[in-house]
Amino acid sequence: MAEAPLNADTTRSVESSAPSTSSSPSPTFSSAEAPSTSSVPAQGPKRPRKPRIVLEGTTDEILARNNVAAPPTFVSKLFATAGANWNRFYSHHAATPFFKDRHWTQREWPQLASLGGEGIAGEAASGADRKGKGKAVLEVGCGTGAFIYPLLEQYPSARFCAFDFAKKAVELTLSNPNYNPAHCHIFQHDLTAPRAVLDDKLRSAAPEFGEPILAFDFVSAVFVLSALNPNMQARAMQTLVSLLAPGGSLLFRDYALHDAAQLRFHSLPSASYAANPSLLSNTAPLYRRGDNTLTYFFTPVEVHSLVDEAVEAINVERREAGEAEIELEGGVDVVEREMQNRAEAWGCTRRFVHGSWRRVR
């Protein structure tokens, strides 16, 4: 899935071994802290922009505003129309510079440097000869291919599979000039569908791609689970974990609780919020963006629990089948990134849950 591009200045890790709560110490925001735009030189007539939403008060105070959730019937309709909403999102931004390649992935996950070596998923690829090709990568929620294509340029021997829920996103990924069917297998798929459905699509790669890959050296899920119905997050995580080959790594990044994007939902003008509520649940941090796509804000403990529950569910099935259990090692933390838009002279603090797990057996 895609994230709005911003100019990043600094990133710092934050201790987050327990869920954040509203009673935890919080920063204070005020309109006086918002950078002045008076010094920005005029550049001719431009299309009028909506005023920047300013965060005023502590986190607790901000979250206390606009905190009435939308009715359940409205939320159910959003879940039912998620595919259409994401297709509109990609269609709307396709001709704009909104989408940026993720050249930061190797900085955040140094283990990706091993893509230059031999693959470890050979046995999982039906035990077939991989014809000397390198490691196998799966990008889940590929959007426009922002994760795989920068890696393909640097590691041309690797093989990449990618899928997205939105058909328009798949079209954009396939239209990338770096698309090569000998190294890329791109398709539309719903992560919450049964694993057998996904396996059939993985087996449908073009002949030049080589033997199908059913388990991977790297599986990425970047801003993916936050776009799902929270009731489907556990099933999705189980599929992600099940796709790892022995020695493979799951790379995870998503929105963290009390991220500036969450606080902005509670800072909308009250009249506008009353007509179109952004908060979709009284018990979970689930929200609706202006384009009707969904977003959720995680704590590290939630993500840890999803991974642990996925491993246990997989091992229950493997024990029943008389197969060896799997084991993952890794973790997740909150990272904070100070963002600045110098052209518009404003800044904010973004918070992400970021981590990785390696299948050690």
What does this protein look like?
The structure is a single chain. It is built from 11 helices and 12 strands. It has one domain: Rossmann fold. A hairpin with a 4-residue loop joins strand 11 (328-341) and strand 12 (346-359). It is 27% helix and 22% strand. The two termini are 30 Å apart.
What is the annotated CATH architecture?
3-Layer(aba) Sandwich
- CATH superfamily name? Vaccinia Virus protein VP39
CATH class: Alpha Beta
Q: Provide the domain count.
A: 1
* Overall pLDDT confidence: 83
Radius of gyration: 21 Å
The global form is globular
Described by strand count, sense and barrel closure, the largest sheet is: 8 strands, mixed
Q: Biggest sheet: strands side by side, in what order? A: 1-11-12-8-7-4-5-6
The end-to-end span amounts to 30 Å
- Strand-pairing-aware structural class: alpha/beta
β content, as a range?
15-25%
Portion of residues in helices?
25-40%
Order of helices and strands: EEEHHHHEHEHEHEHEHHEEHEE
CATH topology heading: Rossmann fold
Features of this protein?
two-stranded antiparallel ribbon, Rossmann fold, 22% strand, single chain, 361 residues
Which helices and strands occur, and which strands form pairs?
Blueprint: E1 7-14, E2 28-29, E3 57-58, H1 59-63, H2 72-80, H3 82-93, H4 105-108, E4 136-140, H5 148-154, E5 159-164, H6 167-174, E6 184-188, H7 195-202, E7 216-222, H8 233-242, E8 244-255, H9 260-265, H10 270-275, E9 286-288, E10 294-296, H11 300-320, E11 328-341, E12 346-359
Parallel strand pairs: 4-5, 4-7, 5-6, 7-8
Antiparallel strand pairs: 1-11, 2-3, 8-12, 9-10, 11-12
Helix pairs in contact: 3-6, 8-11
